[in-house]
Amino acid sequence: MTKRVGWWYAGILLLLVGTMVVALMVGTTWIGPQRLFQILSQPASRDYVTIFNLRLPRIISSLICGGCLAVAGALFQAVFRNPIADPSILGISSAADFFKLGGAVLLPWLPGHNWLLALVGGIVALAILTSGTALRDPYRLIIVGVALDATFVGLSRLVSSGQATQVMASTFNAVTWSDTLGLLILGLTGLLVALLLSPWANYLKLADTALQTIGVPVRTIRWALLLLGMYLAVSVTATVGAIPFVGIVIPNLARRLVGHDYQTLLPFSMLAGAWLMLAADTLGRTVIVPSEISAATMMAVIGGPFVIILLQRGRGFHGLTAH
């Protein structure tokens, strides 16, 4: 790791810690730094309940979700060799959201139905996405993905019978410690595997013929990383719903800051994604107190212009490589 990369890692860690402290303090009730230490010895106080039952699980969940979505986006971009490939824009997240909704309606008795049905949705979307000729054309891939996303969003609205706002407004507002524990187990497992498999993503920088010549199992690597990225995105969607653009914004910025080596890129994306999601959620819940803006809406406001600028400046499918 170069000195420059080390500075960027130090910077994102400082941002992460600082934002966590701010997130603990702000909200409908302001809790100052001195009060934060005092409430540790006052478990029966209202501020203690606010911190440990409301804000802390929300903070931890947003960190895990942001890290998972950023790494999922980086993996998708490595496999598809497309800098704006991401589970949210390719319909994976919306498919998982739709199947999760169906599971809540049809199979509410099934243990873990949210995650199981969201996983089925992710697999279905991935199968559709990879079954045709779209993989060979980055433009066609994005068009198919956007169409797939619109289809599943429309189906979600149809099934929800007028409750579309609830379906679309992915938020951390109702996250409990039970949800947070599930996210910790699913998310940290997936992130650990992603870090272990990061050298595989580097292989995909080479042409398939070159990899086959040296005996690298290209198909196995590609599907392993695709399924891992899908798993990470689905784990987030199953708990808080579909959140867009994290997997586009963070990996593309990370390539500019720390380079294209996935052994450096993936851990940095994980940390930066965690920070971005926490910052977006904290801003969303404080900008119009006592109401709040959902995490999905905040990321749409942040990520939409980013993608437009990315493409308008000629750094789209070919001008900005995902490798």
UniProtKB/TrEMBL annotation:
It is found in: Cell membrane. Keywords: Cell membrane, Iron, Membrane, Transmembrane, Transmembrane helix, Transport. The chain crosses the membrane at residues 6-31, 52-76, 88-109, 116-135, 141-160, 181-201, 221-250, 262-280, 292-311. GO terms for molecular function: transmembrane transporter activity. It is a multi-pass membrane protein. Pfam families: FecCD. GO terms for biological process: siderophore-iron import into cell. It comes from the Bacteria. Coiled coil: none annotated. Part of the binding-protein-dependent transport system for heme-iron. Responsible for the translocation of the substrate across the membrane. Belongs to the binding-protein-dependent transport system permease family. FecCD subfamily. This is Probable heme-iron transport system permease protein IsdF. It comes from Levilactobacillus hammesii DSM 16381. The lineage of its organism: Bacteria, Bacillati, Bacillota, Bacilli, Lactobacillales.
